[in-house]
Amino acid sequence: MPSPLTVVNRQAYRRRELLKDATTRDFSGGWNVADSDLNLSSKFAVRLTNIHRSVDGANEVRPGTKLFSDTSAFIDEIIHVVYYSAALICVGKNGVLVSVDAVGTVKVIWNTEIANQLPGGPTGWSVDLEYASSNVFNGNMIVCNGINKPLTINSSLTVTYLNDLSNGSNVNVPICKFVASHGRYLLMAGDPLAEDLLYISATDTPIWVGDDSPNDAVNVSLGSRVTQGSQAITGLSKFRTNFAVTFADVLLPGSLGTFDGTDHVPAFTDAIENNGAISHKSIQVIGETMLFCDASGVTSIERTLFTGNVKAERYSQLVDPQLQADLDFINDTSVLQNRVFSIYDSQHSNYMLFVPDHGDLNSIRHTRCFVLKKNDALKIEAWGDWQGWSFRCGCRSADKRIFMCEGTEIYLLGELRTRGVARRTKKANEEFPRDRMGKEETFDDRLGFSDNTGWTPVTNFVDSGVPIPFDWVLPWSDNGSRNSVKNSRYIAFDAEGDQAFNVDMFVDGVFEDRTFLGEGFLDSTSAVAQYFDDNTGWEKETLDPAISMEMHGNEGSGYGRDQFGRNYGGGRITRLAKLYSWVTKYKLYKLRIHGLAYRPIKFTSITISYTEGSIRI
Prior knowledge:
Elements: H1 4-18, E1 19-24, E2 30-31, E3 44-45, E4 47-49, E5 51-53, E6 59-61, E7 65-70, E8 78-84, E9 87-92, E10 97-100, E11 106-110, H2 112-116, E12 133-137, E13 140-144, E14 151-153, E15 159-161, E16 178-182, E17 185-189, E18 197-200, E19 218-221, E20 235-239, E21 242-246, E22 250-254, E23 259-260, E24 263-264, E25 272-273, E26 284-286, E27 289-294, E28 297-303, E29 310-314, H3 320-328, H4 333-339, E30 341-345, E31 350-356, E32 367-375, E33 380-386, E34 393-396, E35 402-406, E36 409-413, H5 420-425, E37 468-473, E38 486-497, E39 500-507, E40 521-523, E41 526-530, E42 547-552, E43 580-586, E44 589-597, E45 601-612
Parallel strand pairs: 2-3
Antiparallel strand pairs: 1-45, 4-37, 5-6, 6-45, 7-36, 8-9, 9-10, 10-11, 12-13, 13-14, 14-15, 16-17, 17-18, 18-19, 20-21, 21-22, 22-25, 23-24, 26-27, 27-28, 28-29, 30-31, 31-32, 32-33, 34-35, 35-36, 37-44, 38-43, 38-45, 39-42, 39-44, 40-41
């Protein structure tokens, strides 16, 4: 007969055997709103706000922003920015151009006074612009606005009207919105009086049809080649040895440099239907691929290996429902063309597409950023949803830094976090863990106002900025056993960084609180919140988690060790091997990780320990 001690040990062994672990560490899929979250694997996220997939496969809060310069002394609103000749060139809505050097010093390079000093005393640009575009040709930056004659900026940042250098005349220079260069030619389109007309300069020089000989410039009307939709050109871009002209529903690949005698004859031998661009500034050329956005989503074109033909491929299937909903809300095509823009962050392989939140120019408050991280060599392709910004334009500098403009201010996007030797060699001020550093600051508890803005001006740059709200919702999971009842016991995270976060667990299909009928409103009839006639209020998402907990990244100091002004009490540090109780019952569960990031945080894995029972609750 076994001793009582032996029996106890066997029972303990059986209890330990029943405790199972479910660890999620593959977050490679990114944001997915196209599929039901009942069918998704854990590598996808139903919601991924202000979180991105890092190169090492983890999920981390996006970089913040720092105020770089303010142009309000000369510009009322920046409508376009481009990096050229070691400076940022900003175009103001008031028709003024300024340069901003490496330390943020602003200098006017174009206004009415400068224009009046040119031969003939011409006037400057209009004072109520909504759009501008630019491109480099023959070493000079060409800037267009669709209302006035284009400008040319040389490497010394001297500005003048684009003209025929042989006689100084610009009478034949077209007025266009879009400009691009391809090889030895300068291309323009978006003439308000000839929306389907493509202007191609003479070889190696910006002279146009009507200028003095020798002149092989040509104008091509492309409307007859458009088989569906509007015949107005919406964008131009070079693409390897070809160039592309986009319309709302059609893309025309073309080639230059073919001559019939002395006549330049551009070739358009193909038309890609049901693929166009809503905005010239949504187009980005990335190696062998050209990305652009139409009314259905983000598409790429690339040349086939053997035939050299151009093929189109949709990249945004996983986020198309949300992207299409945001674009459909903007029913003014001019707003789409003027306000939708993109930036390619080549250092981090991010295609960033910015979409405003309203179709009325005067009602735009925020700009949503759809982020595609794509790195074919590392087999990375994942979408993210970055919010909390109101940027109107942006660009990439020569050293691959991203600058974005809001109002009269220029902001610099922070670098992604690094570790080890790479982290020690980076400048400490390149990683911005908060938004609007140098512009706003929070209260002593490091919280801002309800709209996530802060006080201005700042009193301490090091601690300035407002926290970045992040929200990550995983799909439903059954731990591989749909009908069995599970009892969760413990939860553990591998989370790098010094930032607190909240984790919620939802069970058995219950995510929103269905008993909440909306948020009431106050009116002049009563000081008490009022509701509509059907006893409902304003729609507001109210969630109903079964269990919630606040935790802290593994670089936190722990209970009793944090200094005053930080996370008082320390929180539950993820680096500790101790078990954190996480008790609830479920057949299906969903996790949500959210919070306000004032410091970096990265999530590598999530583990839930549970026991599995019968199919009966």
